[in-house]
Automatic annotation (TrEMBL):
The chain crosses the membrane at residues 374-392. Residues 1-24 form the signal peptide. It comes from the Bacteria. InterPro entries: Prenyltrans, Terpenoid_cyclase/PrenylTrfase. The lineage of its organism: Bacteria, Bacillati, Actinomycetota, Actinomycetes, Kitasatosporales. This is Prenyltransferase alpha-alpha toroid domain-containing protein. Gene3D superfamilies: 1.50.10.20. It comes from Streptomyces griseoluteus. Pfam families: Prenyltrans.
Length: 400
């Protein structure tokens, strides 16, 4: 992510190298509608950022506003798919209208499945997603487009969230697991264990950290939301012996991610034309991916880096960025209300309709010592029963 699906979406429309910054102002031709999170132009990420925002609120124990949920459900096309944004929901999708894509559809399914009560919407969306599966078992961003790791993984997460069994789905030939395995870089090669976004024109696989984080979730059959679980003891290493199972693919990918963040605690931007700078969104995806695979201890180092450095990035980037950080906090069992001095949940809430029910805020108590007031945060925790719906992945990839 920077928001996970951006590379897939922007590549699909041919503007990857000229991607607009996340802080871009709304287009003069696009009015940001009521009910939508954020004030930036929603043309390329409206459904995506709304889905992540609703999912993050739900995961943090809040009930999203009906207005926000209705905005999302109202974006669905007649055939069940979701486009990135429909300025005019009265106009039909397809043709010269909005084009449904797998990433927006899968993100919406994950959010609405977690909220519950939207089986009619998610059912149509799942049917649409199944129909877009390629012969190699994967999914591309656009219907009929070549499969990529990010799109395949976010669809797998959506199908799992909707109660399907994506590992058994072979609508036109192979399974999603086979598609992901075909995009894994062999251990003996440079970047071994990682996944490529897609093969290059010569069929070569090049390691891509965002695709790798998304691929871990896809291989494990998990979505954007990962509940903290029991940590595994021994750190993973890329291994090619024995049976090539989805679990092995996930461990190999995790080993690559752990190595990538071992020195600095974060990933670097790999976007074409981007400055040599930290990639906050993909680092957040890495935290979620490692935690999903049981490497919670290894996930805490990049999370600590995010906690120290990512608040300003989220403020500049908007609701999807706050959502990513909330989901990464949830994955390692941390408190999203206490993120290096930032309350991620309250910051997200301010960017959209007020939630119908807010989670209890951290309790603060003033204590006098040497004439100075010292505030201690106590009684902090996520509400029991948090939804556990997966670049992403969105797991979009680096989405503005």
């Amino acid at each position: 992510m920077n928001v996970r699906r951006s590379a897939a979406a922007l590549a699909a429309i041919g503007v990857l190298a000229a991607a607009a910054p996340a802080t871009a102002a709304p287009s003069p031709k696009v009015t940001v509608p009521a009910g939508l999170f954020g004030k930036g132009d929603p043309t390329y990420d409206g459904v995506w950022r709304q889905s992540l925002a609703l999912l993050a609120q739900h995961t943090a124990g809040e009930k999203p506003a009906d207005q926000a949920v209705k905005w999302l459900t109202g974006q669905q096309c007649a055939d069940g798919g979701f486009a990135s944004f429909r300025a005019d929901t009265g106009a039909a999708c397809g043709g010269k209208g909005a084009q449904a894509d797998t990433n927006s559809t899968a993100a919406a399914v994950q959010a609405l499945a977690a909220l519950g009560g939207h089986d009619d919407v998610t059912g149509k969306a799942v049917t649409w997603l199944k129909a877009q599966q390629n012969k190699d078992g994967g999914w591309g961003y656009s219907p009929g487009g070549p499969s990529d790791t990010n799109s395949t993984s976010v669809v797998v997460g959506a199908l799992a969230a909707a109660g399907e069994k994506p590992a058994e789905l072979r609508g036109k030939g192979k399974t999603p697991d086979q598609a992901l395995a075909s995009l894994a870089v062999p251990c003996a090669q440079k970047g071994g264990g990682a996944l490529a976004f897609q093969p290059d024109k010569k069929g070569k696989l090049e390691a891509n950290a965002d695709a790798t984080a998304a691929g871990v979730l896809g291989a494990l059959g998990k979505g954007f939301v990962v509940a903290p679980g029991k940590a595994r003891d021994k750190a993973p290493a890329c291994a090619s012996d024995g049976k090539a199972t989805p679990a092995r693919l996930a461990d190999n990918a995790s080993a690559h991610l752990i190595g990538a963040v071992s020195k600095s605690g974060h990933l670097m931007s790999a976007m074409p034309g981007a400055e040599n700078q930290p990639d906050f969104g993909n680092t957040a995806d890495t935290v979620v991916a490692l935690a999903a695979d049981g490497w919670t201890k290894q996930a805490k180092a990049p999370y600590a880096w995010l906690k120290k450095n990512a608040a300003k990035w989220a403020q500049q980037s908007g609701p999807a960025a706050y959502a990513q950080l909330i989901l990464s906090a949830h994955a390692v069992g941390a408190d999203p209300h206490d993120f290096g001095g930032t309350d991620l949940v309250r910051a997200l809430d301010k960017l959209g309709p007020a939630p119908a029910k807010q989670a209890a805020a951290p309790e603060k108590k003033a204590t006098e010592k040497s004439g100075n007031s010292v505030w201690w945060i106590i009684g902090v925790g996520l509400v029991a029963g948090i939804g556990v719906g997966f670049l992403f992945s969105g797991r979009k990839k680096n989405r503005p």
